Amino acid sequence: MRHPKNTICLWYNGDAEEAARFYAETFPDSSVDAVHYAPGDYPSGVQGDVLTVEFTVLGIPCLGLNGGPAFTHSEAFSFQVATVDQAETDRYWNAIVDNDGEESACGWCRDKWGLSWQITPLALTEAITDPDRAAAKRAFEAMMQMGKIDIAAIEAARRG
Asked: Is 63 within 8 Å of 52 (Cβ atoms)?
């Protein structure tokens, strides 16, 4: 098996395989690629436990490490998922939040394992980078009031 030069390693508390399977079921170009078992006992597990899971999320190679409870995810790292319309935005947001996840602000949510996701419509990115700085500011101010992004409201704010 060929390994990528750079892989995102994500720390889990014994449930890396469950997380990887959820991501593979939820996002396109995602898969569980390999499950590796501990060859011996380690601080948070025993020989034969799932130690690492190789998986792909939206084309990005990842390694889930069942390292135990010592470290948890924070908003300092997130996956930003560009969506093309409200249906795709809703689908990903709802999949994460409805699977024991948690809503946050400005298009962010957190999955049940504590990993942060930015579900970001391309319309939002275009609006807040609009060369018309007044239009960009209106769209930005609208976004700041949102949890899940409402594309129609962003576009209306951009238009003024």
From this structure: yes
Give the pLDDT confidence score for residue 1 in this predicted structure.
59
In the chain, how many domains are there? 2
Residue 87's domain comprises: 78-159
pTM: 0.94
Say whether 77 sits in a helix, a strand or coil.
coil
CATH, residue 55: 3.10.180.10
Q: How many CB atoms lie within 10 A of CB 7?
A: 14
Sheet holding 116-121, edge to edge: 78-83, 116-121, 108-110, 102-103
1 inside domain: no
Tell whether the torsion through CA atoms of 117, 121, 127 and 129 is positive or negative.
Answer: positive
